[in-house]
Specification:
The chain is mainly alpha-helical. Helices cover 72% and strands 1% of the residues. It starts with 8 loop residues before the first helix and ends in a 5-residue tail after the last helix.
Length: 348
């Protein structure tokens, strides 16, 4: 890009900084999905038993594509949520805003920051697709490549739909029937996170390796409940998490007004006064530490935290039950079991 103009170096630098953090869960799940398909004479490049140098280049590129796509989604998500930080550092639009101020440019720093970050997110989306194409070129056959591409395309559509539903719930909850709020919150979890964070990467990796329909169905059945558990844990961290661990201010989801399963479960058990307090304060960006503490205590007293913890364990159990007696290789099954603990571990 710098061959076009030296002014574009900042896009490269910010991209590199933004991609340097994170837990790489999606890339690791894609690799485990690829490993779960045993090598066979028809697909010698698939699975963990394949040993020729460079033959796993395809899954490395596809896993990288998932991480770059995720970075793009985070850039745009932080703009939508007006978030100041990401992974313990300034969010992309805040970086561009600071650049504007440091250079003394004309116009609004905020407008420049948002516009530039939108373009950075778009750029990352394009790079993600290029990486995916590189990986698909190394698929064992064209049918596997086409299937992996279809799964990747489906993931992009579903997570975008889930993001819109999340935005919608923050604003439309007031006009929705009370009895439907929990189901609507679960719907957001499934499409914004559960499929995208766990299920889709597993299936994309396995599809690249030439998985059968039954193998893909097994990974889907494992990935969806684990993805739900993963997001339920993330929702708890968004309200109670330590900023030093999460990289986001404690109570950030309360400031952003996230209408999560946690909030829906809390409201079911609250008296009229406490419910009014939650509805009045939730979504205020200027929440004070005392107000955050008050909301946190109301949520705890409602029993919602314990109910979410139970849901996490139930979903993890459902996911692990799928592996029992499945055709997933023992070594991969053990790694998936370990990962189920890693992505849902309590850290607050």
């Amino acid at each position: 890009m710098t061959t076009i103009s030296s002014d574009l170096a900042v896009l490269v630098d910010f991209s590199r900084q933004f991609l340097s953090g994170g837990k790489r869960f999606r890339a690791q799940f894609a690799h485990l999905g690829w490993q779960s398909v045993p090598a066979s004479p028809g697909h010698p490049a698939a699975g963990p038993s394949a040993g020729r140098p460079g033959e796993n280049a395809g899954i490395v590129s596809v896993a990288s594509a998932l991480e770059v796509f995720h970075a793009a989604a985070l850039v745009h998500d932080d703009i939508i949520d007006n978030s100041d930080t990401r992974r313990g550092a300034p969010s992309a639009h805040r970086r561009f805003e600071s650049l504007h101020g440091a250079e003394g440019w004309a116009g609004s720093p905020g407008d420049f920051g948002r516009a530039s970050a939108i373009l950075l997110g778009d750029l990352l989306l394009g790079w993600s697709d290029e990486l995916l194409d590189e990986g698909l070129d190394d698929a064992p056959d064209r049918a596997s490549a086409r299937r992996a591409r279809r799964e990747f395309n489906l993931m992009r559509t579903e997570v975008t739909a889930g993001q819109y539903l999340d935005i919608l719930e923050e604003r439309a909850w007031l006009t929705q029937p009370e009895a439907e709020l929990l189901d609507r919150a679960v719907r957001v979890i499934i499409f914004k996170s559960a499929k995208y964070s766990v299920q889709a990467p597993l299936v994309i990796g396995a599809a690249l390796a030439g998985a059968t329909d039954d193998q893909l169905d097994t990974l889907r059945a494992f990935g969806l409940p684990l993805g739900i558990a993963y997001q339920l844990r993330d929702d708890l961290l968004g309200v109670f998490g330590d900023a030093a661990v999460t990289g986001k201010p404690s109570g950030d989801d309360l400031r952003e007004g996230k209408r999560t399963v946690l909030i829906a479960l809390a409201r079911e058990r609250l008296d009229t006064s406490s419910r009014h307090t939650v509805d009045r304060l939730l979504g205020r960006p200027d929440l004070t530490p005392d107000q955050i503490s008050s909301l946190q205590q109301i949520i705890v007293d409602s029993g919602a935290v314990d109910r979410v913890e139970t849901l996490i364990q139930q979903n993890v159990g459902q996911a692990l039950a799928v592996l029992d007696g499945s055709d997933v290789a023992a070594g991969v099954s053990a790694e998936l079991t370990d990962f189920a603990g890693t992505v849902t571990r309590r850290v607050f």
